[in-house]
Amino acid sequence: MAENKHGTMTKDNHAALWHGRFAEGPDAAAVEFETSIHVDERMALDDIHGSKAHAAMLSRQGIISAEENKAIQDGLDSIEKDLSSGKLAIDYSAEDIHSFVEATLTDRIGEPGRKLHTGRSRNDQIALDERLYLRRVIPELQKQLASLIKTLAGIAKNHTDSLLTGYTHMQHAQPGTLAQHLCSWAWMLTRDYNRLSDSLKRVSLSPLGSGALAGSGLPLNREMVAETLGFDGVTQNSLDSVADRDYCIEFTSDFAILQMHLSRMSEEVVYWATTEFGFIDLSEKWSTGSSIMPQKKNPDFAELIRGRTGKVYGDLMNLLTMMKGLPMSYDRDMQEDKAPLFEALDTVQGNIIVFEAMIASAKWNLPKMAASCDGGFANATDVADYLVRKGMPFRTAHGVAAQCVRLAIDTGRSAIEELTLAEIKAISPLFEEDIFTKITPKACMEARKTTGGPSPEQTKKQIAALEAFCKDKV
Question: Do 458 and 184 form a contact (C-beta atoms < 8 A)?
Fold first, then answer.
């Protein structure tokens, strides 16, 4: 479609697919406002693959001739080749990627190109393209996730004995290890991986052949197209097929949860990198300085990952709000589904890559981490467990341990182990000299051998399970 001297669009092979009903073309500003090709151009190859399957079906059903199908297939192959090589550039004057592909095809092969759209609407075509695109790119995202999980497990393998305090409410809770903590991050990411797999199952149905909303009066074979494109089957209601954007919302919800996990991990990196904590030393390649304070080494990349969480949450709210209250079936509002979907996908993909590089190149201050287990009464629960093993009910033991903490605080001491045996025996006669060997940070950590716990034998099992999870996924 070309602009004439009056600022309206003229009709040629690149005219809007719907132009026939109108006596004159739309205003140039109107075209600019409603075009989507700058967003949907990334689905060009998916549009071509869907069109090839559709044309083959039309030929099999006798709706177009074998010669016409051959011309269409060859033409689409040439477009795909030229797009991939860079010989052909996207024409941004086209309304959308469907218009561009069909117009380019018609330019190349003539009249048979005009038959490609037989039996389909852009309503079912875009629903197909989006599903094909997601089925193509989500496995790549999963591969990046698996790589990050593997990296975390690899770091953890070297730190099964590296003490690190666990926190609740940002207060010292119980002794743990760096391996246990890194595994906790990795297990969150395995759920993200599996959520994406579940979403892929629901997107693996072909909507093509649903037309604008009511299917087609032509003898289309939807099942053939679905099989050709590797779908598990076809959607079951033509109205729902073109009105559905659940898959956009579901994947963006998956991205939002994944991004939340990356944000939590980044938050911990940020405060671990502070002088007060000093647990982690980020590579200078993944840190920045200050324009005014020469001494600064800032964890900007972790902060940016954390900050971009709002963008992904906003993309999800964008989609939910866009779809709220839309009548069945297709409404032009739904053209706006792609930008938030793609932005959320791009954001989490970029963040995964950056986080993995940042954490893989970091160094760990093991003495500082071990020192975090001293003081703060992180072994108070272990004092109670000691008494439980001697037959005292836990609730009673909890109270005794709390009295020990209270005594230490009242007498200006920062740890239970700074009390004397006589002092704690005055609280409970069950205490013996061995209490002091049972409540060192290392002893407390090693005693926690329940499945999933921080003891080395348990974290090694976790690491092995995480490595097995990543096998054949990276």
Answer: no
- Tell which residue, 429, 458, 448, has the closest CA to residue 378: 448
Question: Residue 7 pLDDT more than 50?
Answer: no
**Token pair of 73 as six digits:** 């297939």
The per-residue pLDDT for range 112-155, each reduced to its tens digit, is: 999 999 999 999 999 999 999 999 999 999 999 999 999 999 99
Distance CA 354, CA 62 (A): 52
Active site residue 181: no
- Of 169, 184, 398, 414, catalytic: 169
**Active site includes 290?**
yes
Q: Rounded CA gap, 124 and 203, in Å?
A: 14
Phi, psi of 174 (to 5 degrees): -150, 150
Q: What is the CA angle 218-327-44, rounded to 5?
A: 55
Q: What are the backbone angles phi and psi of residue 459, rounded to the nearest 5°?
A: -70, -35
Stated as kind and residue range, the H or E segment containing 206 is strand 205-206
Cα distance from N-terminal residue to C-terminal residue, the chain: 45
Catalytic residue among 65, 84, 197, 290: 290
